[in-house]
Amino acid sequence: MHNVWTVVRFTLRTKMMTKSFIVTTIILALIISLGVNLPYIISLFSNNESASIGLVPGKFTSIEKSLEQHFMKQEKTDFKIVPYPNASEVELNKEVEAGKLDGYLTLEEEKVGAFPKIVYHGKEELGMGEEAALTNAFTLIKTEWLVKDSLTAEQMAELSQPVSVDSKLIAKAGETKEKNPVSIIVVMVLIILFFMSNMMTSNMIAAEVTQEKSSRIMEILITSVSPLAQMFGKIIGMFLLGLFQIAVFLAVIIVNLLLPHNTLPLKSLNFDFSMIDWSVVGGGLILYVLGYFLYATLSAAVGSIVSRTEDLSQAIMPITMLSMAAFYIAIFSVSTPNSMLVKVSSYIPFFTPTTMLLRIGAGNPAWWEFWIGGLIMLVSIVFFGWLSAKIYRTGVLMYGKRPSLKEIRKAMRAYKI
Amino acid sequence: MKPLQLKEVVKQYGDKTAVNSLSLEVDEGEIYGLLGANGAGKTTTMRMVLGLIYPDGGSIRYNGKPFHEGLSRILGYLPEERGMYPKIKVSEQVVYLAQLRGMSRKEADSNLKYWLERFNVPENYNKKIEELSKGNQQKVGFIASIVHKPKLLILDEAFSGLDPVNVELLKETVKELRDQGTSILFSTHRMEHVEELCRNLTILQKGNAVLQGSLRELKSHYPREHIILRTGGPVEGLQNITGVSDVKRTDDGYRLRITDESVAQTILHVAMTQTSVQQFELKEPTLNEIFIKAVGGESNA
Predict the structure, then answer these.
(1) Which entry of A247, A293, A331, B162 is 20 to 30 Å from A168 by CA?
(2) What ipTM score was computed for the predicted complex, to two decimals?
(3) Who's near A3: CB < 8 A, 6+ residues apart?
């Protein structure tokens, strides 16, 4: 036990001070603060005046008029319709060229008596939001144009109201009921944090083991301290390092959220600290710890069978694939947290850290399901820890080309491990 | 109760026998030489002693006890491929290795300073390994293997790649450790080091101990075949004496090769009747010659 802590201290001391660790932490912290400030930054830009769109007058004067009125009535509009009476398209093209207009609309008759075809002319195509706003406006105008005066004003108002579908959940006993949208954001943030720091620390562990092997200090280490103590000392050291990094990231997020200029944009997104469900955060933390140890023991085992750093990225590929799968299953299922795929994979230890987190954050599992997932992980950590320690013990003495599974088994038998 | 005792140790890799029924004992304050060509089983033997791999048969005892956890405190090991963390400071890693072997940080640090001073490289304390010359890296590796004051020291090719001055420095240190009671298992290709340092030795060939015993004993088993003769004037008729197989003239005498030791007296007699004899020596075989005879032409050492 004493030796484990010696290894932990050494790992912390030597890794914390490396340039690569400091630089990546700073860069990631910068990216994260950029992300948190994004709503504010976007609000800075979107406060700009709305796009000016010219309108070439044609035969459809009534439609043109209602279009102008439609955008005039709205308080905050995406468009400002500028009528250009008696102007030709050539003149308008010049205006667009000069930057006075973003573009202009023409109404083209296709069939007599039918609603005209709307054509937008501009330097750039319309954005999704802009196109939707225009389509909405014209749909309304078209309705009005078609029904003319056959409906009352109330009926008109009713017609323009969009239909809304509300869903209400029927909750069974023991299931958590309403989910607040903030939990989903929290889950996303935790999954991304887990994925990033897990990838980094696992790779660091594997690289560290391979380096010790290729620099041949391994033989000295392994005669001084048991491989198990050595492996877990390194894993715990890296774990503390990873926790430290996550603490830095979380602090960056919280400090940024608390900055005064961020209050307004966040309020418009309906975000409030009191809305965070701390049981989800706590569950996420437990899953993070378990997931970390599972991936770390495997990485140490992989690092121990490779002799040269150049071969490492190839050898660690299966583990990278697993953690990517865990990440993507969760991210792509954010809107369907109760699907069969998520349910099944939340009991597969490699995927539990992300998918179970998604379920407790956005889905409706019973808490016993969470604990069973945790228990399965714990059992697999013990199993893979034991297996990895055996591989580690064998692998560190094998030099040369990357050994196959058969060769490892043979070596295990030869070394009596 | 010997500090280290191997009894009929066998190690097999698949169907290849790496070490075949090897027995040896290392006393307190003794340097034991392990000789052999490449692939003879030296490193496998050392790895078994270190507990890195387990023997398939036989037993290894340390002060009468089998391998146990506590041994890491009294074992010191310098592997043939000296390993160090290239990017970590000398002080940091040597102290770490000593700590792993159960020494306190403070004591390890003061020991490291003492040894750096002894080897005339105190300025390396705060340097990274990759900044040091190869010779200095080796010195640090050697220090790392002895800094925790081991009782049983295992040196695999300790002096390879060092310049003569540093070889002397390390040899003196090894002798000093021996005189303080450290038992040392020492492997090398260099016969003159064994002749100078070791009391007992084993010559391994393909896992078998082809020769074993004290240096003195081994030499007495091999006939003395060389005679060095320095004389005041020329000596005639040496090659006609029966039992003399070869005569070479040197600038002040002769080197003779004989097939029978008893012929030596005849040669001395012949020489003395003709001129004055300044030196007459019946030379012991060198370990090199014994090694080559024992291992034969198959050696590539």
Answers:
(1) A331
(2) 0.78
(3) A225, A226, A229, A230, A233, B100
